[in-house]
Amino acid sequence: MSFAKWIGGALGWSFGGPIGAIIGLAIGSLIDGTAQQGGFLLGDGQTSRKQSRGTHNKRPNYGKQTQRSQTQSGDFEVSLLILASVVIKADGIQDQKELDFVRQQFVSMYGKERANHAFRLFKNISQQQIPTRKVCMQIKQMMDHSSRLQLVHFLFGIAKSDGIVVEVEVKQIYTICGYLGISSRDYESIKAMFYNSSDNAYKILEITKSASVDEIKKAYRKMAKKYHPDKVIHLGKEHQQGAEEKFRQVQKAYEQLQKERGF
């Protein structure tokens, strides 16, 4: 596959706007080698071309409200790469454990070859000054809520990968959530999945300790629906693993409260 065919097939809405500019700059040093190898960086090529046929040449007007299109695996992937670089650099240090976490996650999701390509692109992205607000506004405008929640879950995983979540990283993720249109309750729910405290189960279910049994049951049904893996099925099986982890955390929180409350 030529590079030109890949770039037209693996990316949809992220081909334009500030994300497109970042990706374009990042692939500048990679394009010759990739084209010679006939390889690709993101997406699976054939599947992505079918999904984006007739749309990838249209660049949306990000100055106006644009109808949200279905996010493809490649769109999610480049968004993930860019925001991951922002979080990793939040404390001024690119910790090797955090970099290893990103690589390991990509290997588990995409396989070694595709992960290696993506990580090469990630390293080029991390050398840039990222306009975080503009990038997040593009993602907010074009990506559905469930997929944005999945991005946040991955970002907390990066921050926790070195064993310590420093305050500057938490603040950076909180800022990103604000730009992405993620509510403070959703932010606290996902954050609680990466911490151990006495009220984590309540935070994950987005309720307080004063909640009644009926309110706990109602909250569980609501959160199970919100975090169900099928919500991100359009991103491909590779991205459902993280969604399944969130879903398990909701179930675990509910089971913990069942035991504590005796119902």
TrEMBL record:
The chain crosses the membrane at residues 6-31. Residues 42-71 are annotated as: Disordered. Residues 50-61 have a biased composition (Basic residues). This is DnaJ domain-containing protein. It holds the Pfam family DnaJ. Gene3D superfamilies: DnaJ domain, TerB-like. InterPro entries: DjlA_DnaK_co-chaperone, DjlA_N, DnaJ_domain, J_dom_sf, TerB-like. Residues 200-262 form the J domain. It comes from the Bacteria. SUPFAM superfamilies: Chaperone J-domain. Keywords: Membrane, Transmembrane, Transmembrane helix.
